[in-house]
Automatic annotation (TrEMBL):
It comes from the Eukaryota. Keywords: Coiled coil. This is Dynactin subunit 1-like. It comes from Agrilus planipennis (Emerald ash borer). Residues 1-115 form a coiled coil.
Amino acid sequence: MADLAETVEMATLDKEMAEEKAETLQLELEVTKERLEEVTLDLELLKAEMQGKPGDQQEGNVSSYELKQLEQQNARLRETLVRMRDLTAHDKHEFQKLMKDMDQKKSEIAELSSLFRSILKLRFSLITVRTYQMHFKCFVNIE
């Protein structure tokens, strides 16, 4: 019975750890999305700035350079976002696997508990039968 309790506790701890990891990854994903929005806004502002100053070649080169930097940063953020999506999908799969394992353990525990109750009933019945046998022997000896 102690093994069952330990198994349930381990399954519960594994589930909690998986939930915490999923929450952490979700938070990281949200931060990355916010950062992507910031960079996108910066890019739009830079494009608007470039369109507002036609004819200024030197200023345009600097803006073009900054635009390339933002595009590179955007590409890195997209890669990060893809990695985060993949990690989230992997963790979701792991979480589902852990939930399936936990459900299996629960059913095993229920089965073992039922078996344990049956054994207790049998022991009680055996004790009752032995008690009746003793009473019967005593009764036979008295007569």
